[in-house]
Write a structure and sequence with these properties.
248 residues, alpha/beta, Rossmann fold, 2 domains, five-stranded parallel beta sheet, two-stranded antiparallel ribbon, 9 helices
Length: 248
């Protein structure tokens, strides 16, 4: 109690000596997302508006998809997919990218709740309807040990609490892969092949929601959906925080 009182007394002086500086706009701030973004910049990140591509989650021109039941972008419009639907909060740019980077790479796992809440604020109830369990995309044991936590698990834990859904450890990563963001598109498409397996000891429901942080080419989520469907899952959806641009 005494240390808390001392901290409150010193806080105004600490703010003067070591002000928080927004990583996006460069202005000092008091209220914001931890010590990385001012509230104005964090709140400025607009979510995708409808319509969005149902396979990768990217925003689409509204006029070109009037009354289309399952709109798809130019990259997803051809070929078969294991994923039934993907929703992204918004584009992986600006403040949203900064917030994600701090959450995933700078050890700020406590940001999981405020980031996952954005899904609950903007995604329609129909998307969550029918989901029976959440499955976070797993890390290799080497990456998990290095990072100390799996960002997808932290996001799934918050969603599970808010949606009253179970988390299933249904997927295992059986082969280490290179970080997707460091690869060219062709390498990204090949990188996750054969890297995931279903834990056959886990009873699988009919509809699963994969939870991940960023959609780049979608190769990782497609591979996860493939092995789940081959194990008997009927529908596989996914949520991601951000969607990168098509050129990746």
């Amino acid at each position: 109690m005494r240390s808390l009182t001392i901290h409150r007394f010193l806080e105004p002086f600490l703010d003067l000596l070591y002000p928080k500086v927004c990583s996006h706009c460069g202005d000092p701030f008091k209220m914001g997302l931890s010590n990385i973004l001012c509230r104005s910049c964090f709140d400025s990140q607009a979510p995708y508006a409808e319509p969005t591509c149902r396979h990768c989650g990217i925003g689409l021109p509204a006029a070109a998809f009037t009354e289309v039941e399952r709109p798809l972008c130019r990259d997803c419009g051809e070929g078969d997919h294991y994923l039934d639907e993907v929703r992204a909060y918004g584009p992986y740019v600006g403040p949203w990218r900064i917030a994600h980077h701090a959450f995933k790479f700078e050890g700020m796992e406590g940001l999981a709740g405020v980031l996952a809440d954005r899904w609950l604020e903007v995604l329609p109830w129909q998307f969550w309807d029918g989901v029976e369990a959440l499955v976070p995309v797993p890390l290799s044991w080497e990456r998990q040990r290095q990072r100390g936590y799996n960002p997808s698990e932290r996001l799934a834990e918050h969603l599970a609490k808010e949606l009253a859904l179970p988390i299933l450890p249904a997927l295992k990563k059986v082969r280490s892969t290179k970080p997707q963001m460091s690869l060219e598109r062709g390498e990204r498409l090949r990188n996750p092949k054969g890297a995931y397996r279903v834990d056959l000891r886990v009873a699988l429901p009919g509809t699963i929601l994969l939870v991940d942080d960023v959609y780049t080419t979608g190769a990782t989520l497609e591979e996860c959906a493939k092995v789940l469907k081959k194990a008997g899952v009927g529908r596989v959806k996914a949520v991601v925080l951000g969607r990168t641009e098509h050129r990746t």
